[in-house]
């Protein structure tokens, strides 16, 4: 996480405020929350575009996300807590309840929220239940209610099948070889996808963690609703396949049909 931040120290001057809010992605204001609130209020427009701001007291005892909690301020407050030993005073409802939120899901999937007005209803739902993430493949015309969020993904979907007990290094090597063959890079990956049977496969989970990517585990129904281009040993388990159907279920198109690399099978879509 540390490499995500590249700080610049600026002594506060009222006339510099507009410049700072425009130029920097995140703001840490070392001053009382009340001062920060009065300073920001005339400039607040929309939670999706307002600059995330964290207030830190001069004694370095608390970090308070004032604006943009779900857009980077909460994460920054927790980072400051881990580095400085102060208290991260995170107050957003989903975080206080230990629940996920729409913005977090979108970030994990490397997606943008198209209908941002849905966020309030969806995040309220997250307080009570795990909101499912579904993929609709077109062409289709979709009509949704106000409490349905539409995400537009960006990046590659990497489908993975593997033998039991596979190591993280095996998974990473297979992914890297498949990416090399397609002329793609690790940083172009949006999500990893596999079968629900592999949800507890430690090597695959470790590989996802090293890559910093979400690993989505698809149900038998989701996998068997796809028509992969090649046959698979997974038919012995009653599945059409794992790597390729995982891609077909989540990506717009298959750009790299499944290929075995030792004990790991990889397919790629976008």
CATH topology of the largest domain: Nucleotidyltransferase, domain 5
CATH architecture of the largest domain: 2-Layer Sandwich
Question: How would you sum up the global shape?
Answer: elongated
**How many strands?**
11
Unreliable residue runs: none
Given the helix and strand composition, which structural class is it? alpha/beta
Q: What strand line-up does the widest sheet have?
A: 9-8-7-11-10
**What is the CATH C-level name of the largest domain?**
Alpha Beta
Q: What's the N-to-C terminus distance? A: 26 Å
**What's the CATH superfamily of the largest domain, by name?**
CobE/GbiG C-terminal domain
- Work out the helix count: 10
Order of helices and strands: HEHEEHEHHEHEEHEHEHHEE
What level of helicity do the residues show? 25-40%
Mean pLDDT: 88
Largest β-sheet summary: 5 strands, mixed
Question: Which characteristics define this entry?
Answer:
about 270 residues; alpha/beta; Rossmann fold; Nucleotidyltransferase, domain 5; 3 domains; 5-stranded mixed β-sheet; 4-stranded mixed β-sheet; 10 helices; 11 strands
Summarize the structure.
The chain has 270 residues and is of the alpha/beta class. The protein contains 10 helices and 11 strands. The chain is elongated, with a radius of gyration of 22 Å.
